[in-house]
Known about the structure:
Elements: E1 12-13, H1 16-23, E2 32-36, H2 42-49, E3 54-58, H3 62-72, E4 77-79, E5 96-101, H4 107-116, E6 125-133, H5 134-141, H6 151-159, E7 160-168, E8 173-174, E9 181-188, H7 199-209, H8 217-224, H9 228-233, H10 247-260
Parallel strand pairs: 2-3, 2-5, 3-4, 5-6
Antiparallel strand pairs: 1-8, 6-9, 7-9
Helix pairs in contact: 1-2, 4-6, 7-10
Amino acid sequence: xxxAKKSLGQNFLIDQNILKKIVNIVEIKxxxxxxxxxxxxxxxxxxxxxxxxxxxxxxxxKNLALKLLNDFKDKIKIINKDILLINxxxxxxxxxxxxxxxxxxxxxxxxxxxxxxxxxxxxxFSCLILMFQKExxxxxxxxxxxxxxxxISILSNWKLDVKKICDIKSNSFSPRPKVNSxxxxxxxxxFFFDFDNPKNLExxxxxxxxxxxxxxxKPFNQLFNGNIEIARKLNIDLxxxxxxxxxxxxxxxxxxxxxxxx
Length: 262
């Protein structure tokens, strides 16, 4: 019997109704699928029932990878590696429909890695259907003027449209986690701000949100050396707080930051 490993953040989804709901969010017949963290293969079975073209699964746990190989044979391609060390763009020429019950401990790290490494003109996926701890999901979908709004909200909404599909109670998993989860759907945007270096979005938002309860004036001065003309140009009231600026204002701030250093 396979035991879940706490060190890998393993909680296996066992609720059949939720599993069926997940594979019916988008049409996957004849599509190429990438599943992150398939665990014991509960979702994998439902994916295969929809007759996809190809199914890739990334499973770090060697024992689970062997179980998946034994259960599904050549119906799936198993990649027994750490998701954070994989270049998904090199796995296949097709665009992926991505499913993932992401480990709670590295879920935002995975999402951030994907977004920051996206090519300017070509996405390697057509959509992402991902499960997060509910509190993390709320931060991802949060809008400005909310206490949950922050760096991951701004990063997620840069190149992707995001919506919540549903919340999932803890008793839908084995072992049962202490928190509930949420299922989110991400779809690439056709138009978005183009930065010289996406890492600058991380840098700018980190400086602003490191002191999220303080006024904007201090981090603004740190980034722009007190150049008040930039604040005027973007119509920013520096007495506000970081959560009061919308997505677009942060993207414009990054462009201004890059133009000063070009």
